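request received
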Amino acid sequence: MSIVTVQLGQCGNQIGHEVFSALCSDIRGTHGLCSKKENESYQESCMERFFCEEESGVPVARAVLVDMEPKVISQTLSMAARSGHWKYNSHSHFCQKQGSGNNWANGYSVHGPRHKEAIMDLVQKEAEKCNRLGGFLTIMSMAGGTGSGLGAFVTQSLRDAFPTSFLLNHVVWPYGTGEVIVQNYNSVLTLSHLYHSSDALLVHENDVIHKICAQLMNIKQISFRDVNQVIAHQLGSVFQPTHTAGGGSGYSRNPLGDLLEPLVPHPEFRMLGLRNIPQMAESSLAYSAFSWPGLIKHLRQILIANAQMEEGIDWQVRPPHPGSSISSTNKPLHFNTSIANLVILRGKDVHSVDLGSFQDPSLYTSWLNPQDAFNAWKTPRAFNKYEKSASLVSNSQFLLKPLDSIVGKAWNMFASKAYLHQYTKFGIQEEDFLDCFTTLEQVISSYTNL
Amino acid sequence: MTQSVVVQVGQCGNQVGCRFWDLALREHAAVNKKGIYDEALSSFFRNVDTRSGDNGPDIYKGKICSLKARALLIDMEEGVVNEILQGPLRDVFDSKQLITDVSGSGNNWAVGHKIYGCQYRENIVEKLRKTAEHCDCLQCFFIIHSMGGGTGSGLGTFVLNLLEEEFPEVYRFVTSVYPSGEDDVITSPYNSVLAMKELNEHADCVLPIENESLFEPVNKIHQMINSGKLGSTVKQNSLVTSSAGGAKTLQEKPFDAMNNIVANLLLNLTSSARFEGSLNMDLNEISMNLVPFPRLHYLVSSLTPLYTLADVNVPSRRLDQMFSDAFSRDHQLIQADPKHSLYLACALLVRGNVQVSDLRRNIERLKPSLHFVSWNQEGWKTGLCSVPPVGHSHSLLALANNTCVKPTFIELKDRFMKLYKKKAHLHHYLQIDGMEQSCFSEAISSLSDLIEEYNELDATKGGPRIDPSRLKIAV
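response:
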């Protein structure tokens, strides 16, 4: 099954480009460390999911690029073409001239309706090229105007036009200390709207990735390109082909469905966090060796201690004792309760890995059986030069604190009525803001009371 | 890509404007080696096929034929505009972009606004329409003028009004040169306050500039060059005060160096809209992020560095110094100290080989010494443009919406009241058709209201921070 990616705004397009680059370079690499047959199967599956074959032989990404100003798209298209290994379809993009001015209302209420037909037309064309459509992945930031506002509108339109398709939004959360002054308003508006149309939100926070770049990758002068490449690596580690548990001998044919169905059992809980280990500078890769037990142990502690990466994990945090009925107020401090988790393992000796520690019922709420709450995907084919790589996609309290912080700051600004005139002039009124705040306070409350 | 049109009004406006076009050409020439008319150029220049004379069609792609500035030059005296048309920039403007008269406005806002406004209204509208028609997607009008005189102040604000009426969707950014205390125009307080009312009501963003603030850096640079201390190690064309190659320092006119700073301000402001970068900052984003309430749209600007030393290796402490300087009192383009006042919002537009980590490191470093309003504690808007200005490896433009503009306004009000109480020179204004006492009282009242808004914000500074309670959800 194929996934159609919609890249929205500057961030969406910059990341989208890094994602397709990473996927392509991974399948072209000779570091698969597995049998030739396995490798070929992997390559075929990846190609089917993300690329289209053309007469020229250069794979064409299954993507639609959308932005309200031309510079980024034009750069993205040319960078891809220059690589010589893959490219975008030269018609699959839509841009305007003026940008959205970091104004969610402009993106949603003005650009959205105005350009809906043209954008959905491009999406339809990409969807038709797929033998079997596996769903949509949108990539956007929520701090600006286009990715956030137009992105929310496009998500709604996708839902309306493809009501039975899977729809996953990859959302980038901005640095806590300003990239954009009205970022918290734009974020609140985006998240609440996406919650109503999307299947799930897969989140990356700039602050977290920045730390990874600084502390694990040892990059001195971190650029957005560095951040985007880490994000692309992490997304690749989720979306590259794997074997699912009951899926028989071939690679999974329903990647989005396999991801979303177990992870989002309840519509109130759609926020997915992502962790990937190990992560290090490419130059150190050759000198490092990891063991699966070590990686699993770290990944599990990252989950329960709500750590952002494999350094600085708090090993004191333990899950609550099983068997006792615990209200959320009695749970150990800082313990991260999960609804459902997915672990993805790639590399050598993957079949021998014991994941029992992730099935511990004390990690989860009581709604699902532990065997339903936890899923694992594996492939012996190594990813992106890492001999062993483990990823965790988690529906848990990972994002609770950051979400609460964003809503708090937005509320603070809203109480002073600052900047509201910029939104009302495009048709977003105070009542609309209040509705969005209410939606998100509800989400916060739900996740708090797990 | 969007286009912008520059409307330069009055002597000051045209002199600054002239410097702007000179530097813009230099900047694009440095980047555009192949002489292709690209999107960046089209933001400020048309490419005209002059083979069939001045009325040739616009060429949208391909080689540069003849570049014409997207500008309107307005002056009620001929001297300045004529000089421009005889100077090295004469081919950049065509006669259809000029509106001049002979006798000037006599330093009288009412003459500029009411008499010339009325007289030239249709002419101005027609020429504006023509300029707009040549634009594929017009995003912004930049008005450059001074506040203290008659033409720039009066006719300039008349044009501002016109722009709002005729092109309501297009942003209006105004660069206003405010008169100093020792201004030799006695009626400058009247002209400025009358103009302020118009700026309050019709501008999207105002960048106030004061001559004293331009004078100091220029002096410093001249001292440095003349003392021979740094002499040959200062890259000549990196001076923020230097004009395009060719013109020797001696032959420059006295205000040229100062006007170059203002011209550089405008170039840096629009750089992210013209060139690529990892975090673009367009003009509509500047307005969106820096104007929390419609009338508080006065932005204090600072440009660093003012010059580059010749050594090419830039250790990061040099970079950090650039950030520190941007917040120091002597780099602001008005006489103000933002560090000791209250920030409502702040924007940093960096050009050159600077990455997001450098930006964040400096924000973290400087934040503790700055006071931000309680509802915007992290009120930073940032932009990264990859293309540095000519002669520099990197540069920083800081725009602050800060209560430190208040003293400038209060002084203006005081100088106004000194004259007004004695009704000095009032008759020159009241005898003009359309002017009444109420024009004055409304203008001063508008200024007082603005000062009061800043006062209210200042009152919250340093007070206890009480966050409003959040919405409660029934569990």
